[in-house]
Amino acid sequence: MLEINELRKRFAGGPDAPGGKVALDGIGFTVRPGEMYGFVGANGAGKTTTMRIVMGVLQADSGSVSWQGRPLGYDDRQRFGYMPEERGLYQKMRVAEQIEYFGRLHGMAAPVAKKATDDLLERLGLTERKGETVQALSLGNQQRVQLAVALVHDPEVLILDEPFSGLDPIAVDALATVLQERCRGGVPVIFSSHQLELVERLCDSVGIVSAGRMVATGTVEDLRAAESNTLRVVVRDPAPGWADGLPGTVTVHGDRHTLRTAGGDDQEILRRAVKAGRVEHFGVEQPTLTEIFKEAVA
C-alpha cells in the first residue's frame, strides 16, 4: 500500500511573488494493491509536484510517503515505474534498444531485458517500429515507448503523469488494457489526466486536487452516490401543467417532459407523473465525474 500523508511544498518566490507559491497544502491519499487511482485537477493544482515528491525528484517541506508501512526510500523507488509529464526519451536511439537500456538501468540481465522489451513491443503495438529511432515516431508512438520504459522492469508501483495525453482512441485502449493487466496482478497504479471520462471508466478511486489541497477523494461509486440527490422524471405526452407547483425545473424535448428536482416528496411527484401521462423514467440521477469535478473545485 502506498500512503501519501500531509505533503506540503512551497516554491521560492520571485519579483512578482515575493512570498513564494504554495504548491501543496496538506495533500494526502492512499493507493491499495491492485487499485487504479485517478489523480485529477486543473493545471497547476499540484498533481505533478506530488508525483515528483513520491519519486524523489523533489523534496517535500513536510509530510511523508510510505510504502508497505515504512518510509519510502531509494531502493523502493528503483522498483517503481514512473512516466513523467515531460518525456525523457533519447531521440536518436532506436526503440527496442532504448527500452532494453532502461531495463538494464533497473538491474535487469540483458536476456531478461530483451524478453521484457519484446513482450511490451507486442502488447503496445510497436513491434514494427522497434528498429526506428524515437524521433521518427509520431507523438502517440513516442508515448507508447515512454510507457514501455516505465513498465519494462515489472515495477511494483506505477506512477504516470498524463499518460494518455495526445493519444488516439486505439492507443488509449492499448495503454488502458496494459495498465488494467498490471492492476489485476496487484500493482497499485496512479495516473493523472484531464480526460475525466477516461478516469471515470478506468479508475477504482479518484482524488480531486485544487490549489494544492485534496477537495474530494474516494471510490468513483462513493463520490457519485454522495452527489446523487437529483431526481429525474421523464413523462411522455403529459397533460398540460402537470408539474405546476412541484419543485425543480422541467425541460421539453418533443413530447417528452423531463423534471429534475433535488427536493419535494418523491411519492407525490410519482403520483402526479403517473396521472399526467406515460412515465418512461423515474429515478435518482448520478452525476458524471466531470460534474463532480466542477462542483468540487468551484
UniProtKB/TrEMBL annotation:
<keyword id="KW-0046">Antibiotic resistance</keyword>
<dbReference type="GO" id="GO:0016887">
    <property type="term" value="F:ATP hydrolysis activity"/>
</dbReference>
<comment type="similarity">
    <text>Belongs to the ABC transporter superfamily.</text>
</comment>
<dbReference type="InterPro" id="IPR027417">
    <property type="entry name" value="P-loop_NTPase"/>
</dbReference>
<dbReference type="GO" id="GO:0005886">
    <property type="term" value="C:plasma membrane"/>
</dbReference>
<keyword id="KW-0067">ATP-binding</keyword>
<feature type="domain" description="ABC transporter">
    <location>
        <begin position="2"/>
        <end position="236"/>
    </location>
</feature>
<keyword id="KW-0547">Nucleotide-binding</keyword>
<dbReference type="InterPro" id="IPR003439">
    <property type="entry name" value="ABC_transporter-like_ATP-bd"/>
</dbReference>
<dbReference type="InterPro" id="IPR050763">
    <property type="entry name" value="ABC_transporter_ATP-binding"/>
</dbReference>
<dbReference type="InterPro" id="IPR003593">
    <property type="entry name" value="AAA+_ATPase"/>
</dbReference>
<dbReference type="InterPro" id="IPR017871">
    <property type="entry name" value="ABC_transporter-like_CS"/>
</dbReference>
<keyword id="KW-0813">Transport</keyword>
<protein>
    <submittedName>
        <fullName>ABC-2 type transport system ATP-binding protein</fullName>
    </submittedName>
</protein>
<dbReference type="Pfam" id="PF00005">
    <property type="entry name" value="ABC_tran"/>
</dbReference>
<dbReference type="InterPro" id="IPR025302">
    <property type="entry name" value="DrrA1/2-like_C"/>
</dbReference>
<dbReference type="GO" id="GO:0046677">
    <property type="term" value="P:response to antibiotic"/>
</dbReference>
<dbReference type="GO" id="GO:0005524">
    <property type="term" value="F:ATP binding"/>
</dbReference>
<dbReference type="Pfam" id="PF13732">
    <property type="entry name" value="DrrA1-3_C"/>
</dbReference>
